[in-house]
Specification:
Strand content: 5-15%
Helix content: 55-70%
Strand order of the largest sheet: 6-7-21-8-17-11-12
Oligomer: single chain
């Protein structure tokens, strides 16, 4: 530090920056540099703006942002290549900012583990880093050489797997028990680190399924022994020492778990933001309906139970309590806990929760009664006791005085304390029974003994809350003893060993916490520690927490690690631990230290009808009076720690220091001041210095000579005659180890870090060379026969392959010929198919043309044949008419001849004479004129009917062409009808829909239908033709109107001003009116025709009887017209109705 020159990279601290004055340059004050500045400040990098002079008191540093500051303290910075070094002892400048910078850089790069000499520093990432613990990582460390040092190869970087692998393989080599001590503050990740070690050892050692049982204990212990605190979401509220036992083959053959100081008070009380033990929340959220019914768990239990709703926190982010409950059930089943036993645990937990809801009513100032509600009922039922007995045990206490039993009433505060004490004892007894069941499940098979063991110590870290009570004192006391053991192992024993061995060693100062340990645990005559004073105060019947606090302050008022506020006397005092000062409140210290249960409650539990609950009474008796006195919690815990430390001293220790990077439990957040405080408390800085300055690797003379003497280049006889120290010296000279890298002690050899790893590498290379020579020799012996066999097999294979090739070639030729034949056939088939297609096409064209010609010829012949047929038909008709006329004349003449008694020939002669003018007619000619007139009318009527037929056909042809024009005309007509009903219309061209409902133009027709009709000039044939014409016109109009209204109704056509329903009704009325009128007129016409025919005079001939006139009337055409009219009318009516 004295030789730091201008431009050198250094670290400077914001807390030691003096306030700048009005000087030259850009000087920053402490306020302007206070970025995340704490009590210890923040370390930042910069470059010296001038040569460093320690005597000046300050120096100028140029910051990376260009500012120049004056600082009082600077530390040299390491080169950039050492920013992520794997071992802190490899740093060129081993100082606080250098160590912090390395840890932060590795933490930002997800490298959570760093070595500090023999200690592994683990930083909690507060997130899942699965890639760091994958199967590939496990396989990599399993293959690590047994004696290699972690720094010998870049492949084996610092990792918890590396520490576990070293412990296991050193146990195999030395046969000595190993212990891994995992310590750190609450929330630093001790529990997770322990689980990773167990996972790795289980995968490395294996066993007969025992390793799976060991791993299955983790979810069970976490559920019943861990809880959420202000500093950690999964804080262990008890300490545990897990011993993994190995057999002669170093395979796992069993395990055992020992627990320390379960925090029972958490069952009944939690701080704001904390939770009760995990198992309570897992039970109420993950239990099946059957379990809930058996345990009387209500709806929304987290808000119902008093022991769960006081802290205001019942959920942990990203934690599924229901899923964890199923994991716990599966783990309990895997280790052999039956479902009946599990149900006992669940019912006892539910009984504890219901017990917290039991309420008391004050009868007087010194007596209470228990409220008889569902809480009391469910608690008594789940515990297997009666409500009366439970209520009596909670509200009274029986005392034996002079042989008499006195029942003492309890006040409400004492009754509540008794209730909470029963809940705490039940949970502790259940936890002890669970540990007992786990240990039974982890025991090895009968007759199988453990040859060695690997111990994992996972104990609560240092704690400092707002309210610190007796539990925090015991926890911090345990951490003080472990820190003392850590310091003794790494500092005192190391330096003492160097001095005893006569090794040249530079002493390293370290902070010893023996004074703080004595303050807590010392006994007379050494002194009166806090635990001793607490036990004494518990023996006094009138001892109170206040008297204990007063006695402690009076006894240790002058102690350097003890303090209290003399201006505010009370129950609070402060102990200055190695990790920092902690203020304790002495309230409930005496009750928690006594840890006694009312005998009435003990008898109540023993008398339970539930086998599980009555069995728990045996675990509740731990610490019961023996020889008239009871062992307090403090004294039992002190003895447990003493035994624990003695066990650890008998094993080879491996230390893991867990670091919490920030107090918010957030990922990717690194608080320098918090991390530095933990590094100081854990002694990591001193560990790094002593490991770098000392000799961390050592061997006894005998062990070193025994292990490496085979590499000494002398005969075996000479080696037997040499002393171990001479062998060691010769080996060191043989391997060429520099004198500065080792020291020879009285009984041991001491090596610098990494030296023995290089020696082991040399040994491994020599071993590999020997193995290579042996393998080559064995290979040569086996290779010659193999080569002969291989050559023979090659020859056989060649012959066989040649034979196979010949057969394959022959087969290939056959396939080629077959393929050519197939191709030719296929091509011929293709060409033939194309020809057939063309031939069929030509034939089709010829057939079509011939058919066309044939049709034309056939059509001409049919036309000629039809013309000839019509001509012949006409001739036949004319002939038939002539014959009929002749027959009629003959009949008439025969009638006249019969009247006048003349033969037919005679009548023919007379007719000839009459024709030639000889015959004289006696009667007048008027009848002949009337007959001729009727015949003429008949002929004209037939012509008009034919003309009507032709007109009807023409109208039908034009109907389709005029459809669109008529639709438009109808819309216009309907629109006009809506506006002007009485406008004149033409009945021949306008739709029926255009008529008003009130118009009646049928009056005259109806009137005429009642009388005989007058045919007028047209005659009867004209009347029939008129009716037929009216029918031909009205029918299509009705049909068209109905079709159009239907199209408008269905949305096919558009008529904005038309009401389709109304128009349909109008059209139906008009059709019925016209139909009735037309029918009457038709009947009247028929009647008149008949009457006129009957009234016509018949012609009379001379000398013959007169023939009736009606026989000569042309009735057939008229009848056919009337019949056709009726048929058309019926068809139009049906069509209109269907359309409607």
């Amino acid at each position: 530090m004295d030789t730091m020159k201008k431009g050198m990279r250094v670290w400077w601290n914001t807390a030691h920056t003096p306030v700048s004055g009005d000087g030259a340059g850009v000087l920053a004050t402490r306020k302007s540099l206070g970025r995340q500045q704490g009590s210890d400040g923040e370390w930042r990098q910069g470059s010296l703006a001038e040569d460093y002079d320690p005597s000046s008191g300050c120096t100028r540093v140029c910051c990376d942002d260009g500012q120049v500051v004056e600082v009082a303290v600077v530390e040299p910075a390491n080169p950039g290549v050492m920013e992520k070094v794997d071992d802190l002892t490899e740093l060129s400048f081993l100082n606080e900012p250098g160590i912090l910078h390395v840890l932060k850089e590795r933490y930002d790069d997800s490298m959570l583990y760093t070595h500090a000499g023999p200690v592994l520093v683990a930083v909690n990432p507060f997130r899942d880093v699965d890639a760091l613990y994958s199967k590939e990582q496990v396989s990599k460390y399993v293959k690590r050489p047994a004696m290699g040092h972690h720094s010998d190869s870049d492949e084996y970087v610092a990792h918890i797997f590396l520490t576990a692998d070293k412990a296991f393989k050193e146990m195999k080599i030395s046969g000595m028990n190993q212990s891994i001590l995992i310590t750190g503050e609450s929330g630093a990740g001790k529990t997770e680190t322990t689980k990773f070690v167990m996972k790795y050892v289980a995968g490395l050692a294996g066993g007969l399924g025992m390793e799976h049982r060991v791993l299955e204990t983790n979810p069970i212990l976490e559920a019943f022994g861990n809880a959420k605190t202000l500093h950690n979401n999964n804080s262990s509220r008890f300490g545990k020492l897990i011993d993994i036992h190995f057999d002669e083959s170093y395979r796992i053959c069993g395990a055992s778990i020992e627990t320390y100081l379960l925090e029972k008070s958490r069952v009944v009380h939690q701080l704001k933001g904390e939770r009760n033990y995990h198992i309570f929340y897992q039970l109420i959220r993950g239990a099946s309906q059957e379990i809930k019914d058996a345990c009387k768990i209500p709806d929304n239990p987290a808000s119902v139970f008093s022991y769960l709703n006081k802290s205001g926190c019942d959920v942990i982010d990203k934690v599924d309590d229901a899923r964890n409950f199923h994991l716990v059930c599966d783990a309990m089943a895997d280790i052999g806990i039956e479902e009946e036993k599990q149900m006992g645990f669940w019912q006892t937990l539910s009984a504890i929760l219901w017990l917290g809801n039991v309420r008391f009513e004050a009868l007087t100032d010194d007596s209470v009664s228990v409220v008889d509600d569902e809480a009391l009922e469910h608690t008594a039922m789940l515990l297997g006791v009666s409500k009366a007995c439970l209520a009596g045990a909670l509200s009274t206490r029986k005392m034996c005085v002079g042989g008499d039993v006195i029942v003492k009433e309890l006040n409400i505060e004492t009754a509540q304390d008794v209730r909470d004490a029963l809940a705490k004892f039940l949970y502790e007894a259940q936890f002890r029974d669970l540990i007992h069941l786990v240990n039974d499940a982890l025991q090895g098979k009968d007759g199988q003994s453990a040859m060695s063991k690997l111990s994992l110590l996972d104990i609560y870290g240092f704690e400092c809350f707002k309210e610190n009570s007796f539990e925090q004192l015991c926890i911090n006391y345990a951490n003080e003893r472990l820190q003392q053991q850590f310091a003794a192992h790494l500092f005192k024993l190391e330096q003492a060993m160097y001095e005893e061995e006569g090794v040249d060693w530079k002493y390293v100062e370290f902070e010893d916490n023996q004074a703080c340990v004595d303050l807590i645990e010392s006994k007379p005559p050494q002194g009166l520690g806090l635990l001793t004073l607490l036990d004494e105060e518990c023996l006094f019947p009138k001892g109170t927490d206040a008297s204990f606090s007063e006695k402690v302050c009076k006894t240790h008022s002058g102690h350097g690690k003890f303090s209290f506020n003399a201006n505010k006397p009370g129950d609070a005092f402060t102990i200055h631990h190695y990790a920092g000062p902690v203020s304790y409140s002495s309230q409930h210290f005496l009750d928690k230290n006594r840890d006694t249960l009312n005998p009435d409650l003990m008898n109540l539990v023993q008398s339970s009808q539930s086998r599980f609950v009555s069995m728990l009474s045996g675990h509740m008796g731990v610490g019961a009076p023996k020889g008239g006195r009871s062992a307090s919690v403090g004294s039992r815990f002190r003895e447990q720690l003493k035994v624990l430390l003695e066990r650890l001293d008998q094993s080879q220790l491996h230390f893991v220091r867990c670091i919490k990077p920030n107090a918010m439990q957030k990922p990717e957040c690194f608080d320098q001041s918090l991390v530095l405080h933990q590094l100081k408390c854990c002694g990591i800085l001193e560990v790094a210095r002593i490991a770098r300055a000392g000799y961390p690797t050592r061997y006894t003379h005998n062990d070193f000579a025994e292990r490496y003497k085979t590499f000494l280049p002398v005969s075996a006889r000479e080696r037997e005659s040499m002393k171990p120290l001479d062998i060691c010296t010769a080996l060191l000279d043989h391997f060429g180890i520099d004198q500065s890298q080792f020291q020879i002690g009285k009984t041991k050899l001491f090596f610098r870090a990494g030296v023995l790893g290089h020696l082991e590498d040399h040994v491994l290379r020599a071993t590999d060379a020997c193995l290579t020579i042996q393998s080559v020799t064995r290979m040569y012996q086996c290779r010659q026969p193999f080569l002969h066999m291989r050559q023979a097999s090659i020859n056989i294979q060649a012959c066989w392959r040649a034979h196979e090739a010949q057969l394959a070639f022959i087969e290939l030729k056959k396939r080629h010929v077959a393929a050519c034949h197939i191709q030719s056939v296929y091509k011929a088939h293709t060409v033939r198919g194309e020809f057939q297609e063309k031939l069929r096409a030509a034939r089709c064209l010829q057939i079509w043309w011939r058919q066309t010609l044939l049709r034309s010829k056939i059509a001409e012949r049919i036309a000629a044949f039809n013309a000839e047929e019509e001509r012949q038909q006409h001739e036949r008709q004319m002939m038939e008419q002539k014959i009929q006329e002749e027959e009629r004349q003959d009949a008439s003449m025969a009638d006249l001849g019969a009247e006048f008694n003349m033969s037919l020939d005679e009548m023919r002669d007379i007719l000839q004479k009459y024709t030639s003018g000889v015959l004289i007619v006696a009667q007048p000619r008027e009848p002949d004129s009337a007959l001729q007139e009727l015949q003429r009318i008949n002929v004209e009527l037939q012509k008009e009917i034919e003309e009507l037929k032709d007109e009807n056909n023409i109208l039908i042809d034009q109907q389709a062409k005029q459809l669109s024009a008529k639709k438009h005309a109808r819309v216009v007509a309907i629109t006009a009808n809506a506006s002007d009903v009485d406008s004149p219309r033409s009945q021949d061209s306008v739709s029926i829909m255009s008529y008003s409902d009130t118009e009646t133009d049928n009056g005259s027709n109806l009137q005429s239908a009642k009388h005989e009709l007058s045919f007028g000039r047209a005659g009867p044939q004209g009347a029939v033709a008129a009716l037929n014409a009216e029918l031909a016109k009205k029918g299509p109009i009705f049909n068209d109107d109905a079709a159009f209204i239907r199209e408008v109704h269905e949305g096919v056509s558009l008529a904005p001003n038309m009401d389709s329903d109304y128009e349909i009704k109008r059209l139906l009325v008009r059709y019925k009116t016209w139909h009735r009128d037309f029918k009457n007129r038709l009947k009247a016409t028929q009647a008149s025709l008949r009457k006129g025919a009957s009234a016509s005079p018949a012609p009379t001939y001379m000398n013959s009887s007169a023939k009736p006139l009606e026989d000569a009337l042309p009735k057939k055409p008229v009848a056919q017209g009337l019949s056709r009219t009726f048929k058309n009318l019926t068809r139009v009516g049906k069509s209109a109705k269907n359309t409607m």
